[in-house]
Structure formats: structure tokens, C-alpha cells
Amino acid sequence: MGRKAILLASVAGAMMASAPAHAEGFYFSAFGGANFIRSQDGSFGFVRTTGHEHFDPDTGFLLGAALGVGLDHWLHGLKVELETSYRRNDVGGHWDAGACLNGAAIDAQIICTGGIGANMSTFALMANAWYEFDIGTRFKPYFGGGIGWARSQIDGAFEFGGLGLSALSVNPFNGFSAQSSGFAYQVGFGVTSEIMPGVSLGLGYRFFDGPNTDFFFGGKILSVSNGNIKFEDQNHSVALSLNIDIN
Q1: How far, in Å, CA of 138 to CA of 132, rounded?
Q2: How would you class 221 by CB atoms within 10 Å of its CB: exposed for 0-12, middle for 13-18, buried for 19 or more?
Q3: For the chain, which terminus, N or C, has the lower number of CB atoms within 10 Å?
């Protein structure tokens, strides 16, 4: 091999060795943080009147992990990944049945109003794409999103305010449990910072929209038929992530 060929091969090898190790490699990401669901209102049939419920979710949590790969040979800063996640929030609130049993010889505050004790959880499998900006510092902003499949579930019970009992412990309204599966999507943005070669920390925000969950009480609330209640699975999350290159 001639000297020129050896020189060119040496230069090419040096250039390859000096390229970022994670440019075309795989990475693993684990993340977790706070999850928020907005308050929601609805109505349902109750005896000969209309009942109303107000769901007031508490701050919950998000846990997840992802396996991804950099696609710098297509677009510098582009990453794609497969992600699994789990969200859970306790859900409080209250319900009332308006003018139910009006004029009856019982305490309307006991039979016609009370609290709600429930929890909402979502398991999701997502395919994501993120674009990371190189701004010349160790901090790298990013944005992106993904689509996939999710299963949402809500479990709980309406309670009588004056008795502290599940409404179905004395009536044919013994709480609720329902789930729904289907399409989900998310969008988000954040920033990462390398803390050592091949390892970075991130802080980000995500909006996640999963399948809505309906639970139907027809024929269970003292034989009324209008008992369909919908709970929308729209989540706002703020999470920390640990990202590790696995080239």
C-alpha cells in the first residue's frame, strides 16, 4: 500500500474515532415524575332527578423506560425509541343528586350527596421520535412526541356523605370499575445535560392523551337508565430522566 493510501486511511480512522460515540448507537432511558389530570364534571340519572359528580384528581406519578437509537445519518439530532410507561392518580371529589327524594322523611344530606374515592391508572406502549438541538453547550433542548396503544382503568365508589358508606353497600350502586384500551399519543419538550461520557440527565414536560373510560350505571342506581359517566384520560407530566448510551 502506498504512503498516500496509508495516510488517507489513518486520517479516516482518526475522524471515525473522534466522532460522537452515541451518534449512531443505542441508548436506554428511565424516567419518573409527577402526573396531573384535570378536574372533570359529569351527570347521571338518579331516581327521578339528575345527579352530578365532580372528579378532583390528586397529583399522581409517572414511571417509564425506553430503548432508542440515534439516526444522525438521516438527520443530526434525530432519535427514535420504543417506550413503556405507567401513570396513576388518586381521584377524589363529590356527587349530589339534586332534588332527589324531595319531601321524603329522611335527611337529604345523607341519601343525596357524598364523596368520591377512586383511582385512575394508565399503561402505555409508545413509539416516539425526538429531535435534540446541539447549541454548543452541554445542555441540549429537545422536542417531539409519539403514538401508540394504552389501557386506561378507573376504580372507585361513590359514598354517602352522612354515613361514609359505599353507595352500593345499601343500594344497587356498589362502586365502579371500568377500563378502555385504544389509541394514544403524546407530545413533549425538555432539556438534557451530559454528566459524564455516555450518561445524561434530563428534565421534561409531556402531554399524554389516552383512551377515555366510560362506566355505565344503567339499571344499577335504583333502576334508572341514564347512568353513563365518562372520564377523560388527559395527562400532564413533569419528569426527570436518566439516559445511558449502550453502544
Answers
A1: 12
A2: buried
A3: N
Q: Is residue 7 part of a domain?
A: no
CATH number for 102: 2.40.160.20
160 is a domain residue: yes
Query: What number is the average pLDDT over the span 234-238?
Result: 97
Does residue 109 register a pLDDT over 80? Answer: no
Distance CA 206, CA 119 (A): 21
> Average pLDDT of 187-197?
95
Residue 79's domain comprises 25-245
Domains identified in the chain, total number: 1
Secondary structure of the chain in HEC code, one letter for each residue: CCHHHHHHHHHHHHHHHHCCCCCCCEEEEEEEEEEEECCEEEEEEECCEEEEEEEEECCEEEEEEEEEEECCCCCCCEEEEEEEEEEEEEEEEEEECCCCCCCCCCCHHHHCEEEEEEEEEEEEEEEEEEEECCCCCCEEEEEEEEEEEEEEEEEEEEECCCCCCEHHHCCCCCCEEEEEEEEEEEEEEEEEEEEECCEEEEEEEEEEECCCEEEECCCCCCCCCCCEEEECCEEEEEEEEEEEECC
